[in-house]
Write a structure and sequence with these properties.
about 500 residues; alpha+beta; 8-stranded mixed β-sheet; 3-stranded antiparallel β-sheet; 15 helices; 17 strands; about 40% helix; about 15% strand; globular
Length: about 500
């Protein structure tokens, strides 16, 4: 599906809504003959010592050794304009460039996975050369064995005065979409759809590591903070297949656009949103039963089943946004969203079996239990889920893709790479080009979301390219800065 430039611009925006995602990865190193979950407790950690093998901080440092050598630390902006870094707790993280379309989000998300997978391969080759008998795994899942939770963070540009009431409506949507955008997980009580939901305790909060919320309110706009803010959603599951990302991000962009249009919202907020999230995630399900029968208490006084509320939101968003070209893939998102609601209502899941990741992982685990005559609490089931989320060569996702067991969105991802001007903001494109220039010329530059800095050894100062506007950068300023990057400044003295 070839994208066309998005035509919908929210009021006060100079272009389409800026969207980006951040993906966190857990690291573990084990004996080469095992997988991280072969111990009885299926333990792996995103940021503490794991035995046997080197600890996760050592493994992460090995992965980022080349980045640290070239860029002076375990963080760099990439040629795509996205950022790769080692976050608090020694876990790798990739933040996409500023995307204008859903194709851009898909392409950048895949780019992050591929970049991390290549780092795993290089680090593994070094371990093999040293004869250490260790196997490095990077797991794109949502929790480790010590209760640390990590996963997918979504970012949507909204006006600075975005109403708290509208955040409550967004929270309702975030809770409902766990029905079809989750990855699946197993706990002491058995199967559950969302792996992230058990770690969420507030609707909104400024923290991300304790008392985690659905929406993080720490405001880093990466733009003019007097005009914009970043709606930072941290409630979603990390997924290995693209369809949940299409539906999660696409439906949220469309909801925000519908809210821009004044969509009716008075009857869409929940009295007890966190209870609703937990109850919905605990709702029992079989492949022949309806889903979303959990009853919610609304602030307006109504009692509604989850799936009925989901249909109301879908229909209002559809009527507000039909024909507007908001995401670059509106028809795809509306189709998948509608089929997901129908599947829940009818209890007929064949129509979404290649798109709901938790259905894919549920079926995979059931096949393992049937073959090995075990139950949900068997470590082999957890091992299967970890192998599914392994981004390295031992992961299960690539064989499942080759077997045609999930929808790949190959054309949409290819479009993101082939038409960057339609899918990414000019600021992201400029940032990526300047980084490519710096790598080619050997120039050391410092990149950020809103500026680029280049040491000027003649004046002991920095040349700065300011980029507060995410949609455009002044062409003459870019050209002047690019000339300096491409070695048109005198080189620094040898003692500098």
């Amino acid at each position: 599906m070839m994208s066309t430039p998005v035509t919908y611009h929210p009021e006060g925006f100079e272009g389409p809504r800026i969207v980006g995602i951040e993906t966190e990865y857990g690291v573990v190193c084990t004996p080469a003959t095992t997988h991280p979950s072969t111990t009885a407790s299926c333990e792996f950690s995103a940021g503490r010592h794991t035995k046997p093998g080197m600890d996760s901080s050592q493994a992460a440092a090995l992965m980022f050794a080349e980045v640290s050598r070239r860029w002076g630390g375990p963080s760099r902006f990439c040629e795509s304009g996205g950022r790769l870094y080692l976050d608090v707790g020694d876990h790798p993280e990739y933040a996409t460039a500023e995307c204008l379309t859903l194709q851009g989000v898909l392409g950048e998300h895949q780019r992050g996975d591929m970049l991390v997978a290549s780092m795993v391969e290089r680090a593994q080759n070094q371990l093999d050369r040293q004869g250490l008998g260790q196997r490095l795994h990077v797991i794109k899942t949502n929790a480790d064995s010590w209760g640390n939770s990590f996963g997918l963070h979504e970012n949507y540009m909204v006006p600075h005065g975005f109403s708290p009431h509208l955040s409550d409506v967004v929270a309702t949507h975030l809770i409902l979409r766990t029905l079809w955008c989750s990855t699946g997980d197993v706990s002491a009580r058995g199967w559950r759809r969302s792996a992230r939901a058990p770690f969420l305790h507030h609707v909104e909060s400024a923290t991300t590591t304790r008392s985690r919320p659905l929406i993080n309110t720490r405001d880093e706009a990466h733009a003019d903070s007097e005009r914009f803010r970043r709606l930072h959603v941290i409630s979603g599951d990390s997924t290995m297949t693209p369809a949940p990302l299409v539906l999660a991000v696409g439906s949220t962009i469309l909801l925000l656009a519908a809210l821009d249009q004044g969509m009716e919202t008075a009857d869409l907020t929940l009295t007890y949103p966190l209870r609703a999230l937990k109850d919905l995630n605990a709702e029992e399900w079989t492949p022949s039963t309806s889903l979303g029968t959990t009853v919610f208490i609304m602030r307006c006084g109504k009692h509604m089943q989850a799936i009925d509320l989901a249909r109301v939101i879908f229909e209002r968003v559809y009527h507000a946004c039909e024909g507007m070209n908001i995401t670059g893939m509106d028809d795809v998102v509306f189709d998948l969203w509608h089929r997901s609601i129908l599947a829940c209502e009818q209890g007929f899941y064949d129509q979404v079996e290649h798109e709901w990741e938790w259905l894919i992982t549920h079926r995979l685990c059931q096949e393992v239990m049937s073959r090995h005559h075990c139950s949900w609490d068997d470590p082999l089931v957890k091992r299967t889920l970890l192998a599914f989320h392994d981004v390295g060569p031992q992961g299960l996702t690539e064989p499942l893709r080759q077997a045609g067991l999930f929808r790949t969105f190959k054309q949409e991802i290819m479009d993101a790479y082939q038409h960057p001007d339609k899918n990414f903001s000019q600021r992201a494109i400029v940032r990526g080009q300047l980084i490519r220039d710096a790598l080619a010329s050997g120039t050391v530059i410092t990149a950020g979301w809103t500026s680029m800095r280049l040491p000027d050894h003649r004046t002991s100062t920095h040349r700065v390219l300011r980029m507060m506007n995410p949609w455009s950068v002044e062409a003459t300023e870019v050209e002047s800065f690019a000339e300096c990057v491409n070695h048109r400044l005198p080189p620094p003295p040898p003692w500098a």
